[in-house]
Amino acid sequence: QVQLVESGGALVQPGGSLRLSCAASENIFKFYAIGWYRRAPGKERELVAAIIRGGTINYSGSLKGRFTISRDNAKNTVYLQMNSLEPDDTAVYYCYVDKVPSGLGRSWGQGTQVTISS
């Protein structure tokens, strides 16, 4: 299992911005996919954004334009820049990595809480 440590979660006012970080214990360049999910209270877990081997980036349709995923291979870290935050963005955000396309053996971080409230 890959060790993933998220950070950056906080309480932010609506309209604000936040950047989440996820530091991996291994070289992230070798992974098939790395990205973020979130789970809001009372809702199913949903994919937020992911970087797929080869450079393809996938976003949840409703979040594209406000959220940006990026990576720093030298730091083995993936980031999630979140702008124009809304109360519906309140959730626990989880980093994940897949070593293979099937997702078998997926590794998860412990999650970081993001709360959007005035």
Task: Chart the SSEs and their pairings.
Elements: E1 4-7, E2 11-12, E3 18-24, E4 33-39, E5 46-52, E6 57-59, E7 67-72, E8 77-82, E9 91-98, E10 107-108, E11 112-116
Parallel strand pairs: 2-11
Antiparallel strand pairs: 1-3, 3-8, 4-5, 4-9, 5-6, 7-8, 9-10, 9-11
Q: How is this structure best described in words?
A:
- The protein is mainly β and 118 residues long.
- The chain has strands spanning 4-7, 11-12, 18-24, 33-39, 46-52, 57-59, 67-72, 77-82, 91-98, 107-108, 112-116.
- Strand 5 and strand 6 (57-59) form a beta hairpin.
- It is globular and about 40 Å long.
- It starts with a strand and ends with a strand.
- The mean pLDDT is 95.
Question: In short, what is this structure?
Answer:
With 118 residues, the protein is mainly β.
Which key terms come to mind for this protein?
0% helix; mainly beta; 118 residues; 7-stranded mixed beta sheet
Helix and strand sequence: EEEEEEEEEEE
- Segments where pLDDT lies below 50 for 5+ residues? none
Structural class by SSE content: mainly beta
Largest β-sheet summary: 7 strands, mixed
N- to C-terminal distance? 38 Å
